[in-house]
Amino acid sequence: MTPLEKVQNLPIWRGAVRVAPLGGGITNVNFTAEDDAQKVVVRIGDDIPLHQILRFNELSASRAAHAAGVSPAVFHHEPGVLVIAFVEGRTLTAADFADDAVLDQALDLVARAHRDIPQHLRGPAMVFWVFHVLRDYAATLRDAGSGYAALLPDLLAQAARLEVAVGQIDLVFGHNDLLPANFLHDGRRLWLVDWDYAGFNAPLFDLGGLAANNGLTAAQEARMLTRYYDRAPDAELWRKYKAMKAAAALRETLWSMVSEIHSQIDFDYAAYTAGNLSTYRAAYAAFENA
Hints:
Aminoglycoside 3'-phosphotransferase, Chain: A, domain 2; Aminoglycoside_PTrfase; 2 domains; 10 strands; three-stranded antiparallel beta sheet; Phosphorylase Kinase, domain 1; five-stranded antiparallel beta sheet; alpha+beta; 9 helices
């Protein structure tokens, strides 16, 4: 059965259902669907162990995120299918984060997720430790004979230095994939969607990912850290943050390298790899010079 047929045959529709592809997904195949009663988003995707994606975790995180007021409601689920409420609005782009007001809204939403989602989470919970993910991705790339294999020894050595610099961490419930398109604005407020990689993590990973994925300036990074921690960052916090920002950028890079080999989604992963590798190298240089 094709993804479109899966959507059309869901047992939730009231009357005729109208289905349209929803672009932008680079892990799932997504659709909007509207029947006589409601409009929803349908996400089609099975477990992807190569990317540490397990759909039971996405479901429980999505439900808890809705209960915490940061994400749309879950309407239906079945193996390989997640149906959530449609938010009338637009997805953000990296350019939106140049506006400090947007950055503040996004940061407050992320902080709310970190703080409140654990109060609503049910069942087994996962941990997302970026340095484990990096080592696992590197092994996957070596096993597949990736053309990037020659880069891996240096990248893993750098990752080891970053892990030491991060040191001991606080633990929150992270989104762990703060791409701009995972923020939706309905004209009044922001929503955070796509909980594929959700799990307990250091808050600095989400903060570093937010900065790396959205091109924040140094002044905005200082604003972000001050707002999140309610104090101006000292030298120790800056170093930990810069290490985690570099690790977040490296994770996105290796994610794309693995996706070049294994993903069936029509997306230019090679260009995405090149862009993220450039972002990582700049972030790592900033860490070394801190």
